[in-house]
């Protein structure tokens, strides 16, 4: 389970946004929790702080105060590589010169000196994402959806408690998206991970998540049942984002 408790992040304002009082820093503040086995969707306008939230959890950004707790352990001051966290990005970050098997292997053993168990584990992960027969291919010989599935396999073998997904669906068509979301849900449940999924499409949140957090201007504007947050009863701010006001 992941708990983000009163996590604050200060950053320099753009010069155009500096107010009359001359305040030149802005602050974000986040509170949320994600259960093991749950995907919490993160939705919100461009620049609202979605990626910053993920960067704070992964350790790419440092908070000014607050804490990040994973499975009862405070990880707030741990280094990036010490955190029980895996991140999957939109552009999947596969190495173009390495085959699929090696791209996944790097997730568990960057030196690539693999034990027999680890090799089996990688084959199992490739089976799980339906790409067992593709292990010798290079990323350029795969479709966008297949590449994204390889990135998920690499995340899967790392067996970390927290999975951060920064718009991994953005480049996929509707059918492929649904397929990847269903795969993600199965993975997250099987491995009991706490996952955060950034998306710009409310339909993705409805398919992926029982709960959704709407972020606005560096704060959690609303968190709750996806249908309550993004459905007919959504408030004015969210409706405006959804283009319905
Ligand atoms: N380290 C930093 N230094 C300065 N400004 C930062 C830093 N990190 C984030 N910001 C600012 O925080 C704001 C939110 O950025 P962020 O990337 O989190 O938005 P987002 O909601 O993910 O947007 P998008 O949907 O466009 O990806 C932006 O104004 C950005 O410039």
Q: Helices and strands in order, then pairings?
A:
Blueprint: E1 2-12, E2 25-34, E3 39-43, H1 50-58, E4 65-70, E5 73-74, E6 85-89, H2 100-108, H3 116-128, H4 144-158, E7 162-166, H5 174-190, E8 194-198, H6 202-208, E9 211-216, E10 219-225, H7 226-230, H8 236-242
Parallel strand pairs: 3-8, 3-9, 6-7, 7-8
Antiparallel strand pairs: 1-2, 1-4, 4-5, 9-10
Helix pairs in contact: 2-3, 2-4, 3-4, 4-5
Inertia-based shape: globular
SSE run = EEEHEEEHHHEHEHEEHH
CATH superfamily of the largest domain: P-loop containing nucleotide triphosphate hydrolases
The description of the largest β-sheet is: 6 strands, mixed
- What's the N-to-C terminus distance? 36 Å
Report the C-alpha radius of gyration, rounded: 19 Å
The tally of helices reads 8
CATH architecture of the largest domain: 3-Layer(aba) Sandwich
User: Strand order of the main beta sheet, please?
Assistant: 6-7-8-3-9-10
Mean pLDDT: 91
Per DSSP, what share of the residues sits in E-state strands of 2 or more residues? 25-35%
CATH names the topology of the largest domain as: Rossmann fold
Number of strand elements: 10
Structural class: alpha/beta
Integer count of domains: 2
Q: Can you tell me the residue ranges where pLDDT is under 50 for at least 5 consecutive residues?
A: none
* Distinct small molecules: adenosine-5'-triphosphate
CATH class of the largest domain: Alpha Beta
Oligomer: single chain
Helix % is: 25-40%
Protein name: Thiamine transport system ATP-binding protein
Pfam families: ABC_tran
GO molecular function, one term: ATPase-coupled transmembrane transporter activity
Keywords: ATP-binding, Cell inner membrane, Cell membrane, Membrane, Nucleotide-binding, Translocase, Transport
């Amino acid at each position: 389970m992941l708990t983000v408790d009163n996590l604050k992040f200060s950053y320099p304002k753009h010069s155009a946004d500096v107010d009359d009082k001359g305040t030149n820093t802005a602050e974000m503040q986040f509170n949320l929790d994600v259960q093991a086995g749950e995907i919490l969707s993160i939705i919100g306008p461009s620049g609202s702080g979605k990626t910053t939230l993920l960067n704070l959890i992964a350790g790419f950004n440092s908070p000014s105060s607050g804490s990040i707790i994973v499975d009862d352990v405070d990880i707030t001051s741990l280094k990036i590589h010490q955190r029980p966290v895996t991140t999957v990005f939109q552009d999947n970050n596969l190495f173009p010169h390495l085959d699929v098997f090696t791209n996944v292997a790097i997730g568990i053993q960057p030196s690539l000196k693999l034990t027999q168990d680890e090799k089996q584990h990688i084959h199992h992960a490739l089976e799980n994402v339906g790409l067992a027969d593709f292990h010798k291919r290079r990323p350029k010989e795969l479709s966008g959806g297949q590449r994204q599935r390889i990135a998920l396999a690499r995340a899967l073998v790392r067996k970390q408690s927290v999975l951060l997904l920064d718009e991994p669906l953005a480049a996929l068509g509707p059918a492929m998206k649904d397929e990847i979301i269903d795969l993600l849900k199965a993975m997250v449940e099987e491995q009991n991970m706490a996952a955060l999924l950034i998306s710009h499409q409310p339909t993705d949140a409805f398919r992926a998540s029982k709960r959704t957090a709407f972020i606005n201007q560096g704060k959690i504007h609303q968190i709750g049942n996806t249908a309550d947050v993004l459905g007919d009863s959504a408030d004015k701010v969210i409706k405006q984002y959804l283009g319905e006001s």
